[in-house]
Amino acid sequence: QVQLVESGGGLVQPGGSLTLSCAASGSILKINNMGWYRQAPGKQRELVANITSGGWTNYKDSVKGRFTISVDNAKMTLYLQMNSLKPEDTAVYYCNAAGYRIGGLSFDSWGQGTQVTVSP
């Protein structure tokens, strides 16, 4: 089993900042890719940013220049630094990780989600 636990969500005013964390644990052999997704009420879940084991990053256009994804491989923890937050960033943010477990089986796991609300 692979577990992902997110933290760091909350209420912030427009223009403010938050940092989300996602700690991975379990019988992990290798993580190939980690990412942050979000889902606003009435909308589909969408990719916000992802990072590969080689360090390649990808961002949704609307967050480029405002959000930064990073990973601490030693701690198996993913981060999302969010600056200049806008009301349209309000959503439940989910962490995702994909790779291989000890024993060779692949995994594709999700966290439970953390609420981010941007409001005056």
Describe the structure.
The mean pLDDT is 96. Strands 2, 4, 5, 6, 9, 10 and 11 form a seven-stranded mixed beta sheet that branches. A four-stranded antiparallel beta sheet has the order 1-3-8-7, with no helix packed on it. Helix content is 0%, strand content 61%. The chain contains no helices and eleven strands. The termini are far apart. By secondary structure, it is mainly beta. A hairpin with a 4-residue loop joins strand 5 (46-52) and strand 6 (57-59).
What is the overall pLDDT average?
96
Helix content: under 10%
Structural class: mainly beta
Termini separation (Å)? 40 Å
Helix and strand run? EEEEEEEEEEE
Radius of gyration: 14 Å
What portion of residues belong to β-strands? over 45%
Tally the helices: what do you get? 0
Largest sheet: 7 strands, mixed
Q: Low-confidence parts lasting 5 or more residues at pLDDT below 50? A: none
Shape: elongated
Query: What quaternary form is this?
Result: single chain
Give the strand tally.
11
Question: How is this structure best summarized?
Answer:
This protein is mainly beta and 120 residues long. It has strands at residues 2-7, 10-12, 18-26, 28-39, 46-52, 57-59, 67-72, 77-82, 91-101, 106-110, 114-118.
List the helices and strands and how they pair.
Layout lengths: L1 E6 L2 E3 L5 E9 L1 E12 L6 E7 L4 E3 L7 E6 L4 E6 L8 E11 L4 E5 L3 E5 L2
Parallel strand pairs: 2-11
Antiparallel strand pairs: 1-3, 3-8, 4-5, 4-9, 5-6, 7-8, 9-10, 9-11
